[in-house]
Amino acid sequence: MSPLVTELRAAAGRENVLSAPSELAVYDCDGLTIERQPPRAVVLPGSTRQVAAVIRVCQRQGVPVVPRGAGTSLAGGCVPLGEAVVLALSRMNKVLSIDLRNRMAVVEAGVANLQLARALSGTGFHFAPDPSSQAASTIGGNTATNAGGPHTLKYGVTVNHVLGVEVVLSNGSIVQFGPVGDPAGLDLIGLLVGSEGTLGIVTKVWVRLMPNPQDFHTLRAIFADVADASNAVSQIIAAGIIPAAMELMDQGILAVVEEAFHFGFPTDAGAILILEVDGPRAGLDRQQQRIVELCRQFGAREVLQASTAPQRELLWKCRKLAVAATGRLSPSYLIEDGVVPRSRLPQIIDRIAEIGRRHQIRIVNVAHAGDGNVHPILLFDERDRQQVDRALAAGREVLEECIACGGSVTAEHGIGIEKIALMGRLFAPADLEAMRRVRQAFDPSLRLNPGKLIPPRGLSPLDRGHPQ
Ligand SMILES: Cc1cc2nc3c(=O)[nH]c(=O)nc-3n(C[C@H](O)[C@H](O)[C@H](O)COP(=O)(O)OP(=O)(O)OC[C@H]3O[C@@H](n4cnc5c(N)ncnc54)[C@H](O)[C@@H]3O)c2cc1C
């Protein structure tokens, strides 16, 4: 047994350290399955103290550390580059307190988003960020990636709902930022949220609880094409209505979702929108009526309200499990996460289709349309290297097209390794240098999740790979 494994066992307990090749294979990738590298070891700590002890061991041994929640990252954020030790926080999964008077809950980093939602059920409060991966993804992972979700159109992304964090820094010290409502001085909580494990390991999170809306109406609008649906989205926002959610699914994804869940979507529809308005009961009918008018004005052939709670649940299930349903179409997928100004949605969807045709890669689309956030799902077979290369090239072109439309390469999934080279397209060299300095202030030896988020000096935007 290596001295590293011996020390890790002493730090976190013998049974919480994995080192056999068959055990390590499970941790060689995340949701970006085409990038794989086995870790040197995996540690599953049960407490913040154990996390700190593991970090100190890795520092002593000069080994990088990659934090991992549920591993649902679609950007390769958990790939253990450089033979890293994976620090998997899934055993730290307790909801520590729910404080309704102060509208706050405290959770360990490995608590799944849906687990928190269930713990809050019946209290009249909820945690607003609801990524489609919420059944698995953890609050620590949501914090590290600044996750969004269908309902963040109205309520904001994770950073707007984190009041405090406990973090283990690269030297093994344990620090707490917050909980505070309105931070004075430097907003270090804002800096840590979205830092993808490069500044510290989040071990505990104080989250904001929002009162549940008094009521909500959920609608399904059917359009002949994506352009009409996108124009309706822009017009609804322009009319001063901020729905809780506006989700778009195109024809390709509709067909497969219908086959999987039998909701009753017409498979000849070019696109559908799932729209939700919520808030005080008074006024919701008026908002709904206006939305129906605007959808019809832009060609919706049918706008239906989900009339029962199970119907609403099924509608959201169709949306949230849409990605999983694509397993019926192909063995592998690559989900991109571009964002464009809302008014450019029709243009980007057209360009995505053209890119798919040119690279001979089938692409279906879901989108948090209200945010201008597109998630083209590129379908291919990972066992065929040529298909993988074509999918990667097509994905990259899609993201470059988002930049050309005045948008960005991520709205919510983060940069990870997948988009690290594209950071040079978004930021000037001086901006990237400033980010490197901030990172170095937190982690001078650059051992926390190396090769992610912030490109090292010399990595060109033209590079197709990632730093090792
Ligand atoms: C089907 C599907 C749907 C998705 N839908 C959405 C969506 O609607 N919105 C959205 O935003 N994302 C979505 N995602 C992406 C992903 O689920 C989110 O990025 C999520 O926040 C990751 O959580 P996780 O616990 O799985 O983190 P992981 O994947 O384990 O890690 C993600 C990143 O955070 C770091 N990290 C994890 N935990 C910690 C920690 N405790 N401290 C420090 N760093 C840490 C990791 O090193 C990695 O860089 C989806 C993914 C899938 C597979």
Could you walk me through the main structural features you see in this protein, from its secondary elements to its overall organization?
With 468 residues, this protein is of the alpha+beta class. The protein folds into 5 domains: 3-91, Uridine Diphospho-n-acetylenolpyruvylglucosamine Reductase, domain 2; 95-211, 2-Layer Sandwich (Uridine Diphospho-n-acetylenolpyruvylglucosamine Reductase, domain 3); 215-317, Alpha-Beta Plaits (2-Layer Sandwich), CATH 3.30.70; 330-404, Alpha-Beta Plaits; 421-468, no CATH class. Helix content is 34%, strand content 20%. A hairpin with a 4-residue loop joins strand 18 (362-368) and strand 19 (373-380). The radius of gyration is 22 Å and the shape is globular.
| CATH class bucket of the largest domain | Alpha Beta
Helix-strand makeup class:
alpha+beta
The helicity comes to 25-40%
By DSSP, the count of extended strands is 19
* Ligands, ions, cofactors: flavin-adenine dinucleotide
Intertermini distance: 26 Å
Number of helices: 16
User: What's the main sheet like?
Assistant: 8 strands, antiparallel
* Overall average residue pLDDT: 94
Number of domains: 5
CATH architectural category of the largest domain: 2-Layer Sandwich
Strand % is: 15-25%
Poorly predicted ranges = none
Rg (C-alpha, Å): 22 Å
Tags for this model:
Uridine Diphospho-n-acetylenolpyruvylglucosamine Reductase, domain 2; 16 helices; Uridine Diphospho-n-acetylenolpyruvylglucosamine Reductase, domain 3; Alpha-Beta Plaits; about 475 residues; globular; alpha+beta; about 35% helix; five-stranded antiparallel beta sheet; 19 strands; eight-stranded antiparallel beta sheet; binds flavin-adenine dinucleotide; 5 domains; single chain
